[in-house]
Amino acid sequence: MRLDKFLKVSRLIKRRTVAKEVADKGRIKLNGVLAKSSSTVKYDDILTIQFGNKIVEVRVLETKDSTKKEDAGKMYELLSETRINQDVKEEESR
């Protein structure tokens, strides 16, 4: 399954176009490697997603073409959620 579609169906990101933009800006890693929106996601992959001031790491448990809202959370396992300190972010941008 394509990365952008997985993010939408699992509801990690609400819209597929937004998921594509986030991936194409280099904010998503798939198994430690920068991923494009067209990258293939499969069972047991590790996704690291940078949302503004937090980084979320999840393990893919299943891929489905569609899902109900209440079942979307079963598609992945949250491994970690880290807040990025604003001072650290400013240091990295220099």
| Discrete helix count | 3
| Cα gyration radius (Å) | 13 Å
Total separate domains: 1
- Distance from N terminus to C terminus (CA atoms, Å) equals 37 Å
Q: What is the name of the CATH class? A: Alpha Beta
Could you say what the CATH architecture is?
Roll
Could you describe the largest sheet, including whether it forms a barrel?
5 strands, antiparallel
Main structural class:
alpha+beta
Number of E strands = 5
- What is the arithmetic mean of pLDDT? 88
Low-confidence stretches: none
Helix/strand layout:
Layout lengths: L2 H7 L6 H9 L3 E3 L2 E2 L11 E6 L2 E7 L15 E8 L2 H8 L1
Helix pairs in contact: 1-2
Task: Tell me about this structure.
By secondary structure, the chain is an alpha+beta fold. It has a single domain, classed as Roll (Structural Genomics Hypothetical 15.5 Kd Protein In mrcA-pckA Intergenic Region, Chain A). It has 3 helices and 5 strands, in the order H-H-E-E-E-E-E-H. It has a 5-stranded antiparallel beta sheet with strand order 2-1-3-4-5. Helix 1 packs across helix 2. The longest helix is centred in the first third of the chain and has 9 residues. The N and C termini lie far apart (37 Å).
Question: How would you sum up this structure in a few lines?
Answer:
By secondary structure, the chain is of the alpha+beta class. The chain has helices at residues 3-9, 16-24, 86-93; strands at residues 28-30, 33-34, 46-51, 54-60, 76-83.
Question: Which terms would index this structure?
Answer:
single chain, 94 residues, alpha+beta, Structural Genomics Hypothetical 15.5 Kd Protein In mrcA-pckA Intergenic Region, Chain A, five-stranded antiparallel sheet, 3 helices, 5 strands, 28% strand, protein biosynthesis, S4_RNA-bd
